[in-house]
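input
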Amino acid sequence: MSKFDQSKVLTLGLFAKRIEGDDSLMELARQRFQEAGMGAEMHPETPEHLESIMKFRPSEDGPVVVHLPRNFQLTDEPTRKRIVDFATRFAGRVWGMVLHDHAAMAAQRENYITSSWKMEAELGKIVDCPMLFVEYAVGLDPADFVRFFAAIRDLDRISACIDIGHVGIREARAVYARGHGGEDVCGLKSRPDRLPAVMADVEAAVSSAAATVLTLAEPLAALKKPLHFHLHDGHPLSAFSPFGVSDHLSFFTEIPLSFEYKGRRVVAPMFGPAGLSKLVARTVELMGPRRTSFTLEIHPTGERLPLGQAASLFTHWADKTNAEKMNHWLSVLSRNHELLHRAIEAAARPAGLSVDATRSRVL
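output
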């Protein structure tokens, strides 16, 4: 197992160059993450790529999680060897690795279980091995996701990553489709003429999302293993993402409408600050002293924020547009991290835990 203390809550943010530019953007990210006391979840393609990103690690003792390439497949032997390579080269330096799930996990469950045991055997040979978290990402039935982890509950180094936005959007789509002949609620953003007539049903579908996340978290927490969460908000009507998805939003986002609904021309997202606080409180209650980690996986949306004192990092840039976009994104991550930290602090004290002054973890 990893040398990292298993009884701390870690808080991290998406640490990547999602905006075009040179490594001055990464240095800006390093500084902003360090100021916020936020750990880093990195997205490398290869161990060599990860080594280059680790040069910008916010702090030497801060938590790092590695999000493995999306084409990695647990049942593929060459993939397992690549995972072992990552784990061996970064043992003791990273807390965990995240691997996407696949739709075949339900239909080919026994194959995935066998592959998990093989993966566990290889990871068990590595001193200070990071955890391997399999992320809810492709929209499996949550019950199938739980069944898979229940079947590998005896494996010490493989556990679950719950992406609350992915779970929430999947639930909203399923609930709305059941009442509307299979219609996709996410498609309504391109049908503004239809929205006023079905808005109440859209809101009912969205309101079911948070409860489903908690329903998924409870049996996974009962397996007595560390859990990792990807935190971001969303809404089926959101058009904010430059990547065309309905989630990966800030918890402070409001979704604009072209008409008035309940006296306003905006609606709240799936969770919002109150929903996040409720989720954190329940998670801390369920997990107790076992290790829990939260990554804010919020995407940039293109707004700009002046660089202030950080302008000195970009004196060689004639056009500061992308630097200001990066600065805005980092400010959004920092604001959401402060919200997350307050939620953890509020939940931890009644549970008898104490909050680390660095704000990157709860003891």
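quick obs: The domain at 9-358 is CATH 3.20.20.150 (TIM Barrel).
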